[in-house]
Every structure is written in C-alpha cells, then in structure tokens.
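Dear U.,

Please find below the material for section 3 of the report. The protein was modelled together with zinc ion; I have listed the sequence and SMILES used, followed by the predicted complex structure.
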Amino acid sequence: MNKRPAIPAALVREVKMESGHRCAIPTCKQTPVDLHHIVPWETCQKHEFDNLIALCPNCHRRANDRDIDRKSIKMYKHNLSIVNSRYGDYERRILQYFVDNSDAEFINLP
Ligand SMILES: [Zn+2]
C-alpha cells in the first residue's frame, strides 16, 4: 500500500479559498473544514485541485459514508467553479468581505 503524502500547503489554501474557508455545501457553510477527495485517495493516488473540496467534518463523514453521494459532491464542486469564474477578483474580495464580516450591511469603497 502506498503511503499517502501530505497535501501541499499551497493546494490546501487554494481549495479552502475556493469555498471561502467554509464547508462547500451551500446550505451548510460550517467551519472548520477538511479536504475531501471526491474520487477517493485509494483510487486516484494523487492530490489534484479538481478532485478536492473543502467540507466540514460532518459533511466529510457523510460524503465518506455516501450519505451525500459522489455525484452531488461533484455538482457542488462544479458550482464553486462557476461562482469563481463568474466574478472577478475584485467582486470576490467584496463577497469575501461579507463572508468574513457577517454583521456588515454595507462596504465603503475607495
Ligand atoms: Zn458541511
């Protein structure tokens, strides 16, 4: 059996940032998050951005138990990529501001 290498820190950051460091399931959005291999590590044997998604420990366990099936997880991942390409960096930073500051009702732009 191959020993599983750690997921590189830069890749961990990229995957977590994709969902704003929150669970990638839109109605969940809990923290903290783990990285889940959509196609299981035992099968894919590599760490790739497109195969990784940030899930909270509860959703991660449900995904591993197939209570949340792989097709659903793939669709959540796909939706994240749509959100991330629909908005430019500037818009994403504004959206992120409201994620980070949940009490904020407005933002002052320069
Ligand atoms: Zn979750």
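For the text of the report, you could mention the following: The mean pLDDT is 91.

Regards,
Y.
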